Amino acid sequence: MARALSLYVETNTFLQKLDPMVKLLYILLSILLPFLILPYRVVGLTFILISCLLLLYGKVFKKVLPLLGFSFLILISIVIIQGLFMQSNRTPAFTIDGLTFYKEGLLYAWTLCIRVLDVLLAFALLVLTTRPSDLIQSLVKRGLSPRFGYVLSSALQIIPQMMSEVGSIMDAQRSRGLETEGNLWTRLKAFVPLIGPVVMSSLLETRERAMALEVRGFSAIGKKTFLFDTEMTLLDKILEWVLGILLLISIIVRIVWL
Amino acid sequence: MGKKSMWSLSFSTPVLVLIPAAVGINYVGKLFAQLLKLPLWLDSIGTIIASMLSGPIVGAVSGAINNIIYGLTMDPISFVYALTSIAIGLVVGIMAYRGRITTLWRAIVVGLVVAIVSALVSTPLNVMFWGGQTGNVWGDALYAYCIAHNIPVWLSSFFDEIVVDIPDKVATVVIAFVIFVSLPKRLIQMYEGEETLERLD
């Protein structure tokens, strides 16, 4: 049985026990507050610092690095491109090999780095310390339709199953003589015979899956109950209120000031 | 019996199980593209097939859920690009409902429209998060050339995105079309609402 897809790390700290809604609110705050309260970079850096400390506390900091990988490459290219070519570039900062980097471009790239890291780390906090099924259950409790809750958790289960078929389809088609290496056109032509079987089987399965669900009362009318009933702790509630009020205050402050 | 309205918000059970399958197909498409070392993403085939089968709303929901799942399991920044996936689902759903994607030519035209729409939606997100870059080497090289020649950032960023999107989205829609026409009729009917699944309540 393929394991459900997830980045969750079980380290049993306070963060893992925290209600997912609190973490969602934290993400919202860390995205919005830097825009609401000027100066952007100071607030953004503060959030990055808070996220880093929380990630360290949750013993998941090492797991963040692979998540940063792809973004990191783009950020480096942003520093180079904006530093060299940004249109408002006026003041030279330094020169390497005849290439002049400008202050304005570097400052802009620095702002972007803060923005990306801010969002990425806040999401990492949620993703690394929350079991996807807990997040979905928490959303369903807050009014998400249980049918959509099912869609989300079903996707998390189906994906590893479908991915596990990839290797055997590739082998099967190769043994029938399908060329999967060579020039671009050859490789492109191989794509349809490879993905075709997965698509067909998964779509045909939907029919049976739908019937199996109906037989088990999926569309039954009435209140759904939960298999694992979790209560929000007092601390969860307090944190939720604090973050909510903080957001509200900064929105009001922003409106009054401008 | 006539077709269901394009904007119907009622999600029958077959439609609800179609959504995870669509997300799975997106994942598998991306994986095969990587295994074959293709210079394309091909990561929205499932969303497009779902839109062709049951319309814009289901396509949009599949797109959104795709990025939510991807954000939860692979790359958190993907949450932000859910907007692009929603737009792709809507566009294909509307065009499939109105015009019936029946020939390869129409599939190519739909692919071009999808590319333009997806570039239009992605560009503001790219400018906001990446200063206009996409992370694709060719696109970013073009972007650097453009801003070095005083072309406005927004336009440069749009070019950056569209040069990547045109081949990718045209290939994606064409592949989805080729698969769609070979689907059994029985399956297509199930999603057109002509055959309702028997319910036990």
List keywords for this structure.
heterodimer; A: about 260 residues; mainly alpha; 2 domains; two-stranded antiparallel sheet; 9 helices; 2 strands; about 70% helix; flat; B: about 200 residues; Arp2/3 complex 21 kDa subunit ARPC3; about 75% helix; about 0% strand; globular
How would you describe the overall organization of this protein?
- Chain A contains 9 helices and 2 strands.
- Chain A is mostly helical and 258 residues long.
- Chain A folds into 2 domains: 14-131 and 233-257, no CATH class; 145-215, no CATH class.
- A two-stranded antiparallel sheet of chain A has the order 1-2.
- The model of chain A has no long low-confidence stretch (mean pLDDT 89).
- Chain B is an all-alpha fold and 201 residues long.
- Chain B has one domain (13-192): Arp2/3 complex 21 kDa subunit ARPC3.
- Chain B has 7 helices and no strands.
- The model of chain B has no long low-confidence stretch (mean pLDDT 89).
- The interface between A and B is large, with 75 and 67 residues.
Strand content of chain B: under 5%
**Tally of DSSP helical segments of chain A:** 9
Number of strands of chain A: 2
* End-to-end gap of chain B: 23 Å
Could you say which overall geometry of chain B the principal axes of the C-alpha atoms support?
A: globular
Rg of chain A (C-alpha, Å)? 24 Å
Question: How are the strands of the biggest sheet of chain A laid out side by side?
Answer: 1-2
Average pLDDT reading of chain B = 89
Map the helices and strands.
The complex is a heterodimer of chains A (258) and B (201).
Chain A: H1 14-17, H2 20-36, H3 40-57, H4 61-85, E1 92-96, E2 99-102, H5 103-129, H6 132-141, H7 146-175, H8 184-215, H9 234-257
Antiparallel strand pairs in A: 1-2
Helix pairs in contact in A: 2-3, 2-5, 2-9, 3-5, 4-5, 6-7, 7-8
Chain B: H1 13-35, H2 45-73, H3 82-99, H4 104-130, H5 137-148, H6 153-181, H7 185-192
